[in-house]
Amino acid sequence: MIQAVRKKEAFLNVTNLMTKIHTPEGSMTVLDHINLSIDKGDIMAIVGESGSGKSMTIHSILQMITKNLLDSYAGEIEVEGKSILDIGEKEMQQIRGKKISLVAQNAMTSLDPSYRVGKQIIEIILDKTNLSKREAIEKALYLLEEMGIDEAKRVFQSYPHQLSGGLRQRVVIAMSLACDPDLIIADEPTSALDPSVQLQVLELFKKINRDLGTAILIITHDFGVVARIAESVAVMYAGQIVEQGKTSEVIYNPQHPYTNSLLNCIPDLDWIFLDGVGKKPLFQIKGEPPNLMNLSSGCRFANRCHMAKDICRSKLPELKKVHSPDLNHLVRCLLTERRESYAK
Amino acid sequence: MTRFFINRILSTIPVLLGVTIFVFLLIQLIPGDPAKSILGGDATAEAVESLREEMGLNESMIVQYTSWMGQLLQGDLGYSHTLHTPITEELLPRFLNSMILTVASLLICVVLGVVLGLISALRKGSILDKASMGVALIGASMPVFWIALMLMWLFSLEMGLFPVSGMYNMRSPGGWMDLLHHLILPAFATATVSLAVIARLTRSTIIDTLQKDYVKYFQSFGLSKSKINIVHVLRNSLPPIINISGMQVGYLMGGALFSEVVFNWPGIGQALYVAVTSNDYPTIQAGILLIAITFVIVNLIVDLLNVWLSPKLQDSIKSNAG
Ligand SMILES: Nc1ncnc2c1ncn2[C@@H]1O[C@H](COP(=O)(O)OP(=O)(O)O)[C@@H](O)[C@H]1O
Ligand code: SF4
Ligand SMILES: [Mg+2]
What we know:
The structure holds two protein chains of two kinds.
Chain A: E1 12-23, E2 26-38, E3 43-47, H1 54-61, E4 70-79, E5 82-83, H2 89-95, E6 100-103, H3 117-128, H4 133-146, H5 152-156, H6 165-176, E7 183-187, H7 195-212, E8 215-220, H8 223-229, E9 232-237, E10 240-246, H9 247-252, H10 257-264, H11 270-273, E11 320-321, E12 330-331, H12 334-343
Parallel strand pairs in A: 3-8, 3-9, 6-7, 7-8
Antiparallel strand pairs in A: 1-2, 1-4, 4-5, 9-10, 10-12, 11-12
Helix pairs in contact in A: 3-4, 4-6
Chain B: H1 2-10, H2 12-29, H3 34-39, H4 45-55, H5 61-73, E1 79-80, E2 85-86, H6 87-122, H7 127-140, H8 144-158, H9 176-210, H10 213-219, H11 225-263, H12 268-277, H13 281-309, H14 311-321
Helix pairs in contact in B: 2-13, 6-7, 6-9, 6-11, 7-9, 8-9, 8-11, 9-11, 10-11, 11-13, 12-13
The structure holds adenosine-5'-diphosphate, iron/sulfur cluster and magnesium ion.
Residues 54-55, 187 of chain A line the site of magnesium ion (MG).
């Protein structure tokens, strides 16, 4: 298997990650040979339908899959060149929040209703850094201001229920930055928000990336979001990466039929590029993803692929380089493989 | 907020007034002549009549109620014609003894119940969890007097660790330690059922709270588990725990009556039992009143705690007021 051309010194390297979980029917491989590489300052997106394994990927990276659910990890995850798959819980605590932190998926339910917002931010700062209480308060206020909140002091003093959805989203993002992580991971951070607020939040991520140099991994099912923010993208289907590359490459030169279908799911591409145009996602590809418990030996997308040939049902395509200027553009499709061989 | 708390406290006044009217009418409506039943079947008509006069039974109900209320407001619970003593002297110390027992058992069942429930929830599915919940299930279905007898048999008679009965050792100077020594068995006997109830509720509440997004979010920052469990999980599980604990006070007061009998604890239970069998209406009236007032106060405390613990509730109160 050809792997992506990787920056060996990258901040986060995921190599051939396989994650298995327990199910009532037995062990299930939810992630299959995932390869990702994110460097400081990068903005990357993972896109895919619900159930494709996006959340599993980031929960594997942070090792947050609960003991009862997790069967095993295989492969390698390295942070700053250091393998983290076999380090202890104590050391992992040093990575969570400080090196890699999560932006809560649902800002409405991810803040503790019993405490003022500011208190929750400084709780994290005080626990994870050596700052004094006064410094922690200053830092929290600074972060809130950085998030474009005008009345940072008022928000700091508010309880979560007193804030609008947009403000809470900003608070949650500020929280994720509390200990100056090198990478923040946002799992569908905008799917619950109004389109106009979604755009603001995406702009905010860009600003954070620009001003603080924080790398961002954004998880979404919406190619509109990918197009607006990410420099590179990995398309996931049924626990595998099926296409991966620079965003512009993948959007303007999609190689995988599934990527194509996802792109067709954005009926009005305008919203990506014009502020204020509401988006109307029509997220539906005919058919169902395969059951991970009993996979055929062929391409996992075969039963939904309008280009499927007989061979697709018996041979599993590998992730291979696309014949294009982008050396990192990879695709997992037998059709492209053949096209490649014709090209030779 | 202070205004709300004051208003809520003042709002118990009409309730308490209602309670006094209810208790007053309850006794009035019981068939039979209190004077006659005090003096017995073969008393002369004159004797009955003069006692009726002395007890004020010939006055109108309104007059009787107002004079009774007037006494109550001065802390006078009335006069027991059966025992020939002021009720305040006889009943109040006993009521306080009962409260000592009730409060002690409340402390036991809340502290142990919460600790047990918390540990079970955090080790859900472990042997410890299964064992303690099994014991809780058994505990919740045992009658208080039976538990009391078993405790007495095991710890007093067999092991000799605790005294069999009473509140103080007659031959020693008494004091706190002596009281505590006497208190432990009856308090545990009273607390067992409620302890089991609180432990089970705490366990399920904590398990729910552990699933909350905000708990998982704080965990994702790599904060220490024990800190999250106390600052966020326990804190947000408090309201249901407080509510059920408030509800348990009633059961504890009821259960205390049984423990009092078994351990010969000089509480209100014995006194009320005597009062009922001897038709001592003023004492019964005073007893019911004291218990009812306790309930009103417990409810008040539970309400205030709930508001104090919930910023959201405080806001909705403020917006209703404004
Ligand atoms: N708690 C769980 N129990 C059982 N299966 C799960 C659980 N969470 C996820 N899965 C399975 O893992 C696969 C990937 O899920 P997930 O990573 O949550 O998808 P996504 O985030 O892309 O929607 C799915 O097939 C899903 O059914
Ligand atoms: S390998 Fe075949 S079935 Fe799979 S995506 Fe390519 S064309 Fe479709
Ligand atoms: Mg998900």
